[in-house]
Amino acid sequence: MAPYISILSFLVILASIQGICAVDYTVTNTARNTPGGIRFDKEIGSEYSRQTLVSATNFIFGIFQQNNVADRKNVQKVSLFIDDRDGVAYTSNNEIHVSARYINGYSGNVKNEITGVLYHEMTHVWQWNGNGQAPGGLIEGIADFVRLKAGYVPGHWVKPGQGDKWDQGYDVTARFLDYCNSLKNGFVAELNKKMRTGYSANYFVDLLGKSVDMLWRDYKAKYGN
Predict the structure, then answer these.
(1) Residue 97: DSSP 8-state
(2) What sign for the dihedral angle of Cα 126, 120, 198, 79?
(3) pLDDT of 19-47, one tens digit each?
(4) Domain of 182?
(5) β-strand 77-83 against 95-99: which pairing, if any?
(6) Is 5 within the bounds of a domain?
(7) Which of 15, 60, 112, 186 lies in the 20 to 30 Å Cα band around 106?
(8) Do 134 and 225 belong together in one domain?
(9) How many helices (H) and strands (E) does the chain have?
(10) Signal peptide location in the record (predicted)?
């Protein structure tokens, strides 16, 4: 009888762990009857989008080096909505909203583009934001850094070395963070970990031995800017 009890105990523990780790992903096309909603269903699809949310999550855990559940945010459900709205996309309260109008108007490979957008938005679900103290440009830059490392860089992004300031956000900051990460592999993961409880520009000094302004000057000089 003892072996059966042990096996049963193991299964109960395994189920508990899976319950803790499991995330429910849903996709809803609320713009199904619009041109963008129709294009979403035809060229991207709900199932592909759901699988992309799963793949993006696992990729982000790797980028952030979050091998333990305790290192991650406690997120039970992520919902993706395709809405008839302007703009591109935004994330709030673990809900990702993507514009059907943007999908309709995109002239290139829309499936590849939206995949990149989803990697960016999923990063917002999982990243730490310094309890709201971190610069918005850094938050957006980390999200685009993940998109960059995943290989979904659109043609309109700036080239390495371009930009006016390190926390300009999005592609500018993503390129800068990629440079910083080249100085110390895992830098972005360690920066994100520090941002779990707060934010300070001194984090750059702690991790790389230089102020962020000095790093920005070095970065610009490397590319002749």
Answers:
(1) E
(2) negative
(3) 346 999 999 999 999 999 999 999 999 99
(4) 130-225
(5) parallel
(6) no
(7) 60
(8) yes
(9) 10, 4
(10) 1-22
100 and 135 share one domain:
no
User: Same structural domain for residues 28 and 100?
Assistant: yes
Domain membership flag for residue 10: no
Specify whether 134 is located in the same domain as 122: no
Cβ 215 vs Cβ 204: under 8 Å: yes
pLDDT digits (tens, 9 = 90+) for 70-79: 999 999 999 9
195 and 145 both lie in a single domain: yes
Amino acid (one-letter) located at 174 = A
> Is 147 within 8 Å of 60 (Cβ atoms)?
no
Which residue carries 């762990």 as its tokens?
Answer: 17
Average pLDDT, the chain: 93
Q: Which pLDDT score, from 0 to 100, does residue 11 have? A: 43
Let me know if residue 6 belongs to a domain.
Answer: no
Pairing of strands 89-92, 95-99: antiparallel
pLDDT value of residue 167: 98
Residues 111, 141: one domain? no
pTM assigned to the model: 0.90
Query: Domain ends where: 126, 161, 185?
Result: 126
Residue 169 is given by DSSP the state: -
Would you state the structure tokens that stand for residue 153, as one six-digit string?
Answer: 């860089």
CA end-to-end span of the chain: 73
- Six-digit token pair at 30? 């609320």
For residues 142 and 188, is the Cβ–Cβ distance under 8 A? Answer: yes
Quote the tokens at residue 188.
């972005």
